[in-house]
Fold this sequence. Notes:
Residues 1-28 form the signal peptide. By secondary structure, this protein is α/β, with parallel strands linked by helices. 36% of the residues lie in helices and 25% in strands.
Amino acid sequence: MSAANARKKPFLRLATAAVAMVAALGMAACSGGSASSSSSSSSAQVGDRGPEQIKEAGEIVIGIFSDKAPFGYIDADGKPAGYDVVYGDRIAADLGVTAKYVPVDAAARTEVLASNKVDITLANFTVTPERAEKVDFANPYFKVSLGVVSPSSAEITDVGQLAGKTLIVTKGTTAEAYFEANHPEVKLLKFDQYSDAYQALEDGRGEAFSTDNTEVIAWAIQHPGFSVGIKSLGETSYIAAAVKKGNTALLGWLNNQLVELGEEDFFHKDYEQTLAPVYGDAATPDDLVVEGGVDTTSTN
């Protein structure tokens, strides 16, 4: 998994494809199931639908990132791709419906559920107590902590080096919340899109950029001249699917499916397909994957 060419593909094609295709991403990406996309057969609106109503409608609407490779992005063919999309495709397949993917910004991941724009948010969504007040999270399928990437020529290896300096973050992320709560001495430059945040780092508009360690490690591998000087910051966090607050039927279905997927090591296979070509030797699936909805390795 260490071949450089194999690791480059998702990131090399992301910037151009994502910008070109975001406007067109009101798309339906087919997973193995019914070809029907009619929603007239179900009286419940998107967001409030349970599994049976989604099956009747023939389509499930899933919020994903369109600019956060290797988790959710638009590939060179203009199609949704990444770790979260493989999971979304499996959800649709197990329901026997088509998956319609809708792009979301990090700060809008709760809003799209509350406003009935999607049935599920799968946008690399970290579970926090604040978010859990607004949405219902299923059990986790991934785990992360924060990382900090910076130019290798001025590498940030300790948070203390950022005092009085500018750190780039994406709005609505755990990185934004962590630094606002714990490091008010750090100036935050905020962006709606991950692609804009990375561009700001490359342009030198901040000393560093912080987001999930899984992402900055992958990005630095593909961008010579940048290093992840802080690979783990804060406590281990968990990523999970989210549904509209009170949609217990869909939540229960997702949790039951996670148990079944764990029996076949689904997320390890997802990792090998989507993440291993990017991370190479920098991470292993056991470091990051949660099977069956339960992290059996956590010591927190």
